[in-house]
Amino acid sequence: MSQPVLLHDTGNSPLRTIVVGAGEAGIALARDLHRVSSFGLEPVGFLDDDTSKLRRRYGGRPVLGTLADLEQVLERNDVDVVVVAIPSMPTHEVKQLGLRAASLGVTVLHLPPFLSALQRQIAGTDMRALQVGPLIGRPEMHVVSRNARAAIAGKRVLVTGSGGSIGSELCRQVYGFGPEQLVMLDHDESNLHRTQLELWGEALLDTENTVVADIRDAERIFQLFRDYRPQIVFHAAALKHLPMLERHPCEGVKSNVRGTQNLIEAAVAHDVERFVLISTDKAANPSSVLGATKRLAELVLDEQQPASTVLTAVRFGNVLGSRGSLLHVVRDQLASGAQVTVTHPDVSRFFMTIEEAVGLVLEAVRMSDGSATYVLDMGEPVRIVDLVRNFANLLNVRDVDFKYTGLRPGEKLTEELFGAGEKALPTDHPRISMTRPPQPVPGFRAGLRELYDAASHNRPDEVFRHLRRLVPEYSPAPGLVSAGAPYPDDF
């Protein structure tokens, strides 16, 4: 292995970036990223397997090592992002780079495949859609620290909802941290197949690390915990589409509350070290069934307070780039020349990237020492219409025609991060706050049993009544029923 070069920290505010490939594509990309500050990436050097290029400078930036030196170069140069500028690099090699970089909390971006790169002339504009700063009004934050690796390395880790956007990204980053075993659980075998294919480059679904199960099935969940004995559990499985749960509240209770309690009880019974619940900002002063059920899941978690298992919740804003998220819908509408449907001209949301969301989860594992809820500082809420216009500009679409369809039942104009009776408390991370939720209402456990009974017998009116009693701050927002608008409710 060659000896990698050490750069000194220059104190640049953009994200420190290593470009993989010191060929024409990499040199052109590094030049464009340096010239256009809005990309938010500042190249500090290259990696290239051509050893004749080592210590040579291209555009004023040195070749710091070969791909074998990746971890050393990232650690010694305080790197935030790796950009692969070898368009012809096989997908499985890019994924392996991503796993290696993720183990150090570093994000990997990739230029388009070779033919697409030729069409686009391998310009820095290929990276524009990957930069979220112009969309959400703040730079992307890489919140995961290198200390998070120590909390996961060598552990048996279970991820529920591992076929979803957040769950699969959790699996990818956790796998890069070197766990003793990664168990991926989902009720949808197609999603499991996709996640396994992304991680290993093949997906035979014949290994012990992929598990089909429904979190509503308490007996099955206890069996899995007994067999696998996980030490860390990330609970990302949930029903999360707000309009659907307004129409089918019993299903929201069965999955988001009862399913969560099944997992928590199994975790406590089997001495799990740390359990992390993925929640949502809609749980703060909820106005929807989604928010109320996720708030109730937080209360179920907090009410346990076991001696040996650390129970933690993490609240997300809306996640950009996840499957079915707002940008995917808007992109398709802009491409077809159709009107962009938005519920209200003033509706706003907190936004974050998948990398930020998963980084928050991993930091919560590292920081948590007792029951608490962790929240990322996501800046100010962003109006949906502003985000759409900024996104359209990145796609060189100058005129956007909006169609306003009206607020839906349960939808707020603006989300909140902290609910009634909650106070934001500092942590050892400057961009992450925590709060300890208030005590549940008297008769909480008996009320839960009544809620579960109503849900199991599919009595929605009773479910609404029990939700209001168990979550006093739950105040349903009436909204206006309307079809056809993309609802940005990913978290």
UniProtKB/TrEMBL annotation:
Gene3D superfamilies: NAD(P)-binding Rossmann-like Domain. Coiled coil: none annotated. Pfam families: CoA_binding_3, Polysacc_synt_2. The lineage of its organism: Bacteria, Bacillati, Actinomycetota, Actinomycetes, Propionibacteriales. This is Polysaccharide biosynthesis protein CapD-like domain-containing protein. Belongs to the polysaccharide synthase family. Residues 157-435 form the Polysaccharide biosynthesis protein CapD-like domain. It comes from Kribbella hippodromi.
